[in-house]
């Protein structure tokens, strides 16, 4: 029998070797990084004061409480007022560089695009809902998905207004059925899901129909809950594993089950494609005369899980437009002069049927929407994770002008909400809603409602066209609007920014 002390000695040697290995590795990495910082003249960004300097428990609790009280964006703005344009925080072994500096954001999103990505934390946080879709993946997987999606948003398709007309007709009919006193926000959610599902998949989900099917309304509610819970998981960061929410799991399952009908449709299309000759395919293509995302998706893969992930991600992509429409009518319902000015401008260029060219001539409408996007950006905060050690040309030092070293796995979080309200970029009246400012402003990297760089939103033109068309139609249908809720707006952050209280209003014919 081998004496016990032999095992103890062997274990001690193994532990000692393990410790020595990681100590040497740490020292070598530290030395290499020090040389890189010295070479580029890097300075650290200011660090936000933390009561818990090691784990940042106080910051995590602040984030959680602010989220529950619907004031998370105000908390971010207050932190930047205190910490500057760029500052760092440390929470549970994760260093985050927080910024509202357009020069730093431009480097992360564009100039040094390959150095950053979504990262494993976002993938784990959103995976129960989004799987391996375009909003969670990186590198070659993302590139392939992006190439697959891009043709869906060609200008010729986006500017065809016929698809919007019937759904906006139905929206207006519902408003009248409710005696013109209604909450517009859920109607806008239903509108965009109906429009975008028909646009991408060839058939509407029918949320605006007289009697939407029960499984459709269940999907609608589940999608909203799952999106909000996903944001909560992201805010928890490395503590995400403490997020135990059975309702979240149930809602993700409902969304996936709903998406299955489109998966089945895609697989059926793929089977039919394999049974016809090339000549028959040409004839069928000529008869269809339109690109459907779901058909092209079926050609790319027959994996049901991959198909489902793609479909759910594209359904979620429609989530930004109802928020934009809601904030537009929030502002219009609170300002009679603004309503009259915008309505008169729209009527001046309006034609029946409304055309894309007429919409493009409505310059004040475009400026109005730009101002909505500035004060209420759909994605109010976003982040990227460093794939490797890298150096950004700005962000370091007390003034943020020196190079900044970013270690592998560090997170860069940027807030368009805070950046869009900077007075040094948009004037002393940056907190005020004033569409006229866009008569002279030429937006650059300080204005990012649809993100920037290679991951810029491919559906930007679709969202702008649908928003412009919907606003123009409502403005020409109703003569005035009255707010039925005079409380200040409160944020509701799901996967995009919305209003907690909705838009309670009275539209007058």
TrEMBL record:
TM stretches of this protein: 6-29
Keyword match Metal-binding: yes
Molecular function GO labels: heme binding; iron ion binding; oxidoreductase activity, acting on paired donors, with incorporation or reduction of molecular oxygen, reduced flavin or flavoprotein as one donor, and incorporation of one atom of oxygen
A Pfam family the protein falls into: p450
Keywords per UniProt: Heme, Iron, Membrane, Metal-binding, Monooxygenase, Oxidoreductase, Transmembrane, Transmembrane helix
Cofactor(s) listed in the protein's UniProt record: heme
Coiled coil region boundaries: none
RNA-binding keyword on record: no
UniProt family annotation: Belongs to the cytochrome P450 family.
Protein's name according to its UniProt entry: Cytochrome P450
Species classification: Eukaryota, Fungi, Dikarya, Ascomycota, Pezizomycotina
């Amino acid at each position: 029998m081998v004496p016990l002390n032999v095992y103890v000695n062997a274990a001690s040697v193994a532990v000692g070797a393990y410790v020595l290995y990681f100590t040497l590795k740490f020292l070598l990495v530290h030395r290499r990084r020090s040389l890189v910082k010295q070479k580029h003249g890097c300075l650290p960004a200011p660090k936000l004061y933390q009561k818990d300097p090691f784990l940042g428990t106080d910051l995590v609790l602040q984030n959680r409480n602010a989220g529950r009280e619907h004031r998370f964006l105000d908390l971010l703005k207050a932190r930047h007022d205190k910490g500057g344009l760029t500052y760092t925080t440390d929470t549970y072994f994760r260093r985050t560089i927080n910024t509202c500096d357009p020069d730093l954001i431009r480097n992360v999103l564009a100039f040094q695009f390959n150095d950053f990505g979504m990262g494993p934390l976002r993938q784990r946080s959103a995976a129960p809902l989004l799987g391996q879709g375009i909003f969670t993946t990186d590198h070659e997987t993302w590139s392939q998905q992006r190439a697959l999606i891009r043709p869906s948003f060609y200008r010729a398709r986006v500017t065809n207004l016929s698809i919007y007309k019937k759904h906006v007709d139905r929206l207006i009919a519902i408003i009248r059925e409710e005696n013109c006193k209604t909450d517009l926000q859920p109607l806008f959610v239903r509108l965009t899901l109906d429009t975008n599902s028909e646009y991408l998949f060839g058939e509407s989900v029918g949320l605006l129909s007289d009697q939407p099917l029960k499984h459709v309304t269940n999907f609608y509610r589940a999608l909203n809950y799952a999106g909000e819970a996903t944001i909560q998981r992201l805010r928890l960061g490395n503590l995400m594993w403490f997020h135990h929410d059975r309702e979240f799991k149930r809602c993700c399952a409902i969304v996936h089950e709903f998406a299955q009908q489109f998966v089945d449709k895609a697989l059926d299309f793929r089977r039919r494609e394999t049974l016809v000759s090339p000549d028959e395919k040409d004839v069928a293509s000529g008869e269809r005369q339109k690109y459907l995302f779901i058909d092209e998706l079926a050609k790319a893969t027959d994996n049901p899980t991959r198909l489902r992930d793609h479909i759910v991600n594209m359904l979620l992509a429609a989530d930004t437009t109802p928020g934009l429409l809601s904030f537009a009518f929030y502002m219009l319902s609170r300002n009679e002069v603004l309503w009259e000015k915008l309505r008169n401008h729209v009527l001046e260029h309006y034609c029946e049927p409304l055309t894309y060219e007429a919409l493009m001539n409505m310059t004040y409408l475009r400026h109005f929407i730009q101002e909505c996007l500035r004060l209420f950006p759909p994605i109010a905060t976003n982040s990227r994770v460093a794939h490797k050690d890298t150096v950004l040309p700005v962000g370091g030092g007390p003034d943020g002008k020196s190079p900044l070293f970013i270690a592998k796995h560090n997170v860069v979080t940027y807030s368009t909400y805070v950046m869009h309200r900077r007075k040094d970029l948009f004037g002393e009246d940056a907190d005020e809603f004033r569409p006229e400012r866009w008569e002279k402003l030429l937006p650059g990297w300080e204005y990012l409602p649809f993100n920037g760089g290679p991951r810029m939103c491919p559906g930007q033109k679709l969202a702008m066209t649908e928003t412009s068309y919907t606003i123009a139609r409502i403005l020409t249908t109703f003569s005035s609007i009255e707010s039925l809720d005079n409380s200040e707006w409160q944020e509701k952050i799901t996967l995009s920014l919305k209003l907690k209280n909705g838009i309670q209003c009275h539209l007058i014919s």
